[in-house]
Design goal:
By secondary structure, this protein is of the alpha/beta class. It has helices spanning about 1-15, 35-45, 65-80, 95-105, 125-135, 155-165, 175-185, 205-210, 225-235, 240-260, 265-275, 290-300; strands at about 20, 50, 85-90, 110-115, 140-145, 170, 195, 215. α9 (about 225-235) crosses α10 (about 240-260). The longest helix has 23 residues, at about 240-260. The protein starts with a helix and ends with a helix. It comes from Streptomyces dioscori.
Length: about 300
């Protein structure tokens, strides 16, 4: 019991940070470019990133095959070993999610993030059952539900954690700071590590309500920018955090436009403008048109990379 408690404390501490969601770079033939993937991970780690989520949405989780998701996990764990905590994204049907979580454990990852169930009919009881089955399959790993459902009650998360003490954090991605504040308090503000799951644009408001970490796709491009924001937030310097917010505002607006259609596209376009990877994304995402690429390049070129 003592060992598990110690492990979970380390995992909880790791979550209270910039949680990087790496892109998945593709080669010209459409396969995962393993060398570029490793290079991008090393660049992020060298830039100060200390927790990474392979198979997150910025990594095009839903566009990857099962074999590709396993490969991404393997590459990430190998590069991050000894340098960063790995929080592996798992999901899809329950047997697939459980198998992915066990694969993450086998490789030595410390935690899994459970993607919001993609199903037209999600009951609150069923939500608990889904996450409980995954958490019970890997009791040694920290488990972080990814919550995008605005009607889920905080009491349900508390119920899940009562059954599964390895549910230690939450990636909360409902775009409503007041709802987040209420949900966190209903579930137990001190019981979980609260990660603002909508990245830098929402980080200041969510930190003011109790978050201590935030996810980031921007960190792929400019780690220093994201780290500057969290340092400001940790010190209570909200004016300083908002200066960073102003710096990244347009970039994040481009990512969020049209229902976040270009969320990954804009990040890869910025990386391509810096010569770091190809701009290729998979359907249902699509590359930026030529007419919009210059603006992204100008934004990325203006940051302290």
């Amino acid at each position: 019991m003592t060992a598990n408690t110690t492990t979970f404390e380390a995992q909880r501490a790791a979550l209270a940070d910039v949680v990087a969601i790496p892109v998945t770079p593709f080669a010209e033939d459409g396969s995962i470019d393993q060398d570029v993937h490793r290079a991008l991970l090393r660049r992020a780690l060298d830039g100060g990133v200390r927790i990474v989520t392979p198979n997150g949405n910025t990594g095009e989780f839903y566009a990857l095959s099962p074999d590709e998701r396993r490969l991404v996990t393997e590459l990430t764990v190998d590069e991050a070993r000894g340098r960063a905590t790995v929080l592996v994204g798992v999901g899809h049907d329950l047997p697939t999610a459980v198998a992915s979580a066990r694969h993450a454990r086998q490789l030595g990852a410390e935690m899994v993030m459970v993607h919001q169930p993609v199903h037209p009919y999600v009951s609150e009881d069923g939500w608990v059952d889904y996450h409980r089955a995954i958490a019970e399959a890997v009791p040694e790993l920290g488990v972080v539900p990814y919550i995008r459902n605005p009607v889920l009650a905080g009491a349900r998360l508390a119920e899940l954690a009562d059954a599964c003490p390895n549910v230690i954090g939450v990636k909360y991605a409902v775009p409503d700071a007041a709802r987040f504040a209420a949900f966190a308090r209903d579930a137990g503000l001190e019981r979980f590590v609260w990660v603002a799951g909508l990245a830098e644009p929402y980080a200041p408001s969510y930190f003011s309500a109790g978050a201590t970490g935030f996810t980031s796709g921007l960190v792929n491009v400019a780690p220093a920018v994201s780290l500057n924001m969290i340092e400001a937030l940790r010190s209570g310097d909200y004016a300083g955090a908002m200066k960073v917010w102003e710096q990244i505002r347009r970039f994040e607006e481009l990512r969020g436009a049209n229902g976040s259609a270009n969320n990954v596209t804009v990040v890869k376009e910025a990386l391509a403008s810096l010569g770091l990877c190809r701009r290729d994304v998979r359907p249902p995402s699509r590359q930026l048109p030529e007419s919009e690429r210059a603006e992204v390049a100008a934004i990325a070129g203006g940051w302290s990379i």
